[in-house]
UniProtKB/TrEMBL annotation:
Protein's organism: Cephalotrichum gorgonifer
Keywords associated with the record: Signal
Signal peptide coordinates: 1-15
Domain Cyanovirin-N: 54-141
Record-linked Gene3D superfamilies: Cyanovirin-N
Pfam families named among the record's database cross-references: CVNH
Name of the protein described by the UniProt record: Cyanovirin-N domain-containing protein
Length: 150
């Protein structure tokens, strides 16, 4: 699915999607794996590396085994690759090293994730649309955030 940049950048287009409240899970069923935004709140991306060697991490508050919301995180390098300047899902994709200023662009019910990345020649690629719907392949198993790529 592609959007025109003008659509994405239209004023007010970034209304935060209404996140579902944390589901109270009976003890023992918390290990059922679900798409993380079904269970977790306050998704954020942060760089736990530095400007030269970024390490982009997804964090969110998720219901722990005792149903208390706790901060959980997953390194997105486990799940996302840089394909010549464009992000795509990929196990151990290690996109971070070639991407900077990653951010969410929440739009309607989708948390789009995108970064400024360089292509094979080292040139920064301008994207017309964000490519990663972060909920598509990030799950929560009651304990950890994880990539649910096969
Ligand atoms: C719920 O399950 C967790 C993980 O197995 C366990 O540590 C915890 O003691 C359980 N809580 C209750 C109230 O049984
Ligand atoms: C990403 O990094 C891990 C750990 O260093 C490595 O095992 C893996 O092969 C790398 N993946 C790619 C696509 O380079």
């Amino acid at each position: 699915m592609k959007f025109l940049a003008s659509t994405l950048l239209a004023a007010g287009a970034y209304a935060s999607p209404p996140l579902q409240p944390a589901r109270v899970l009976a003890n023992g069923t918390a290990s059922a794996q679900r798409k993380f935004l079904d269970l977790c709140r306050n998704p954020s991306v942060l760089n736990t590396g530095d400007l030269k060697a970024p390490n982009w991490v997804l964090g969110a508050d998720c219901p722990d085994y005792d149903d208390v919301m706790r901060f959980k995180a997953v390194e997105l390098d486990r799940c996302i690759a840089n394909d010549n300047g464009y992000l795509e899902w990929g196990i151990e994709g290690n996109f971070s090293a070639k991407c900077k200023t990653c951010a969410f662009q929440p739009r309607l019910l989708v948390w789009w994730f995108d970064c400024v990345c360089t292509d094979k020649t080292g040139r920064e690629v301008t994207h017309t649309a964000p490519s990663i719907d972060i909920n598509e392949h990030i799950s929560y198993n009651g304990k950890n955030l994880l990539c649910d790529l096969e």
